Amino acid sequence: MSKKSLLMLAAAGVAIVPGVVTAQTASRGLPVRYVQEAQRDHNALVAEFGGAETGARAAYVDQVGRRMAVYSGVDPRAFRFTTLNSAVENAFAVPGGYVYITRQLMGIMNNEAELAFVVGHEVGHVAANHAQARQEATRRNTINGILGAIFGSFIGGGFGEAISQWAQTRSVLSTLSFSRQQEYQADQLGIRYLAQAGYDPNASATMLAALGRADALELRIQGGDQRQTPEWAQTHPNSANRVAQASQLSRATGRAGGGITNRDAFLNQVRGVMVDDDPAQGVIDGRTFTHPDLRLQFAVPTGYLMQNGTDAVTISGSAGKAQFSTGPYNGNMQAYIGQVLQGLTGGQVQLQVVDQNRTNVNGIPATYVIGRAQTSSGIVDVSVFAYEFAPNQAYHFVMLTQGGRGIGPFAPMVNSVRRLSVGEAAQIRPRVIDVATVRAGDTVQSLASRMAYRNFQVERFLSLNGLQVGERLVPGQRVKLVVYGTRER
Questions:
Q1: I need a surface site. Which of 69, 244, 377, 433 has the fewest CB within 10 A?
Q2: Where are the transmembrane segments (predicted)?
Q3: Would 150 be classed as within a structural domain?
Q4: Residue 365's domain spans which residues?
Q5: Residue 409 domain-assigned (yes or no)
Q6: pTM > 0.85
Q7: pLDDT band at 378 (very low <50, low <70, confident <90, very high)
Q8: Same domain, residue pair 410 and 477
Q9: Are residues 245 and 353 in the same domain?
Q10: What pLDDT, in 10s, does the model give residues 291-320?
Q11: Are 320 and 409 in contact (CB under 8 A)?
Q12: Residues with Cβ < 8 Å from 95, sequence gap 6 or more?
């Protein structure tokens, strides 16, 4: 949650892969409608997913992207490449030629050719007109209807529908989920573009393998983590079949292992890339959410999952759902809560207030209201628990539970909110990529011990660098580490 409030060989001598749409020799434009939609939605999308990187690294990604787009048959000027400040490993493209890649995904890459494959894959989706297969789904899911705060999207609908929508809301980016055939085709096109651009086409297989390793490790780590992967991050199914096919197709080009990788140039660019949560948007660590700039912290009950967005933290579990956010506050807590409830129901649903009171949570003045509504899904309790952190600053949870349960399932959470001291806030630092040169005597274990994690240090180091268990390091070899960085103020 922000203080300011989604992968995601027609040239001479290159084999043409059967079943793949061939790149066109003449550049073509993109449909005006798609371009206009991409332009319209870009700013809201970027804001929702943490903002866009600028500077040398963003320019580098754009340069690599345009190098690949030249071979797509689409006018390269139709594409726009953006690096998102997101802690989720993904990349995606919208039909209007806007391609997005997350900083987290860049962190698991090991050379420029892998970056080129990722953006080439996304360019391939656009060039192959895969959007047409999901045209109606895209039309039904506009960015304005879904990228707003979940509760804000309730306005104008029945409350029963709203609850159902909360459980099923999907980002417009989830309409970018492709069929298996389309994913394979985009892989094939990406490999073609790699070879045509002079890159090592085998980077396709190593990149897909890196994603597989990262996914497998994340599943192990999640045993002690309450983080929920947002649905927009689930646009690219991973499989060993994709790796095997990519390896086969890259060999078929006759150039596998012999093209450009630009590893050193890539490592120089990726040094300093933030990984995991951006402290400016708050940090999920196990069951706790900590925001150093807002100087607050809370913990979710065991078994509940958190999803951190730009404007809110969403919490979900078997007994209910909740969201932590903020809004305009002028010192009148009753008016503040009323505004929250108005946003929930749009004034169209009557809530019967069954309980309200003022209290104090860890020294913070708080007020709560529990309302009850009859919906098509049965009786539902809607609770707002708000905290006054300052005369002009308040935060709140909205909770939806089964009728009669009120705040009950979330009582430990609402009672865990506390202020952070200046010292505690200062200790929350970002994790960033560093690049180290292996020296004589260095081992996987010794370098992994420098990783800024309390657990799975060796496993994280191996996955980050594409190394196998038992693989020896060579003096002079460059490897990536995740270390603590410093906060920019």
A1: 244
A2: none
A3: yes
A4: 281-426
A5: yes
A6: no
A7: confident
A8: no
A9: no
A10: 999 999 999 998 888 888 778 898 988 888
A11: yes
A12: 30, 31, 34, 37, 38, 126, 131, 138
Within a domain: 320? yes
Neighbouring CB atoms inside 10 A of 143's CB total 20
pLDDT in tens, 352-364: 899 999 999 999 9
Q: Are residues 456 and 414 in the same domain?
A: no
Total of domains in the chain:
3
Q: Which of 275, 300, 324 is the last residue of a domain?
A: 275
Q: How much is the average pLDDT of 186-208?
A: 96
153 and 264 share a domain?
Answer: yes
415 and 455 belong to one structural domain: no
The pLDDT value recorded for residue 8 is 38
Q: Using one digit for the tens of pLDDT, what is the confidence trace for 396-424?
A: 999 999 999 999 999 999 999 999 999 99
Of the three residues 222, 241, 275, the one that is the final residue of a domain is 275
